[in-house]
Amino acid sequence: MKSIQKSNKLNNVCYDIRGPVLEKAKQMEEEGQKIIKLNIGNLAVFGFDAPDEIQQDMIRNLPVSAAYSDSKGIFAARKAVMHYTQERGIRGVTLEDIYLGNGASELIVMATNALLNDGDEMLLPAPDYPLWTAAVSLSGGTPVHYLCDEANEWMPNLDDIRSKITPRTKGIVVINPNNPTGALYSDELLKGIIAIAREHGLIIFADEVYDKILYDDVKHTAIGSLSEDVLTITFNSLSKSYRSCGYRAGWMVVSGDKRGAEDYIEGLNMLSSMRLCANVPGQWAIQTALGGYQSIQELVAPGGRMRRQRDLAHELITAIPGVTCVKPKAALYMFPRLDPEIYPIKDDQAFIRELLEQERILLVQGTGFNWPAPDHFRIVFLPHEDDLRESINRLARFLEGYRKRHGTVAA
């Protein structure tokens, strides 16, 4: 038989959050083993339920949700997003600048497909949320990763960004709050990125999905609010702040100076129309979510469940010999470092697979987030405290065995 091959466009596409190690975990579950999954921020699985009023509004509107909506989305939801951008200080946004999608993920792929020609370059953070790198590659572009500095609380290195700009660079991706590190960027840093984009005529792609999941009284600034001249595409969704991952309701906002970007915006409109529309039931959740009571505040406040679990996970992780971790100020993750002198890992995917097989906990290796060295991993701190404590105790036991096997000890 003739072999049927996947498209060459997928050669550089990788999404290890749902990659080969997850397939092994599924196999183990089918064999009857119970796996603690710390690989993905799937909130409802861990008992973080979507607000009831969101569910009720979707149910109420199901009878009028069978038809296609406008390709950019229903009026009420886009109006709510427009008001939200105004609250965030992003100026000059009209209804026509707002696109609703099946989560932010669909819109990220749409925005890169509309922009990139073969060989065009996009600047992406390292580590990054790997969908960005995959979307750039799938669009025919070349992902170019700029370094975020762990020693500076994972802030992007502006000099490294500047050094990687070429005539083929089209844009800069900014993930703030950051997945996987939990970092939150200062206004000063954001203004530095804007200055670079302004100087080189680049688009800023702002992934701000975690903008309400903030700890320790920190504040998030929408990068689109800091300039009116730099073209900025901002992405957000209901998945995290509203614990509604499966509803697949996200939005994309075009702001800044749109003069000169008419052709690109026409491309966005074409792709938006080609997929007909986002799922309509999910769109009905947006107005209620953005205008209603913000229950996320209870979860991230002192004593709130997310805050408690972040503190517990950080305390337990950093108590393991040879493991350090910048404490996240936002989001649902932390990105610990394994000291290479103590943990001489050559293949971190194999390391994470061995951890899964021995201890039945599922994490994602750092290289899965386009970090260049096999010395980090991402942990999701969403399980209930007992499960979180148990999973990190298993990790500590595995790492103790690793140190013994390799004859290394912590300083």
Estimate percent helicity.
25-40%
Which regions are unreliable across 5 or more consecutive residues at pLDDT < 50? none
H/E series: HEHHEHEHEEHEHEEEHHHHEEEHEEEH
Total E-strand runs: 15
Largest beta sheet: strand ordering: 2-9-8-7-6-3-4-5
Task: Name the beta content range.
Answer: 5-15%
Q: How would a crystallographer describe the biggest sheet?
A: 8 strands, mixed
Distance between the termini: 58 Å
Descriptive notes:
The protein has 411 residues and is of the alpha/beta class. The protein has 13 helices and 15 strands. The strands form four sheets. Strands 2-9-8-7-6-3-4-5 form an eight-stranded mixed sheet. The protein has a three-stranded antiparallel sheet with strand order 11-15-14. The protein has a two-stranded parallel sheet with strand order 1-13. Strand 4 and strand 5 form a beta hairpin. Helix 3 packs parallel to helix 9 (280-291), helix 4 (103-115) packs parallel to helix 5 (130-138) and helix 4 (103-115) crosses helix 8 (262-274). It is globular, with a radius of gyration of 21 Å. The N and C termini lie far apart (58 Å). The model has no long low-confidence stretch (mean pLDDT 93).
Question: What's the helix and strand layout?
Answer:
Blueprint: H1 20-30, E1 36-37, H2 52-61, H3 75-87, E2 98-101, H4 103-115, E3 121-126, H5 130-138, E4 142-149, E5 155-156, H6 158-163, E6 169-175, H7 187-200, E7 203-207, E8 232-237, E9 250-255, H8 262-274, H9 280-291, H10 296-300, H11 305-318, E10 323-324, E11 333-334, E12 337-338, H12 348-359, E13 361-362, E14 364-365, E15 377-380, H13 385-406
Parallel strand pairs: 1-13, 3-4, 3-6, 6-7, 7-8
Antiparallel strand pairs: 2-9, 4-5, 8-9, 10-12, 11-15, 14-15
Helix pairs in contact: 1-12, 2-9, 3-9, 4-5, 4-8, 11-13
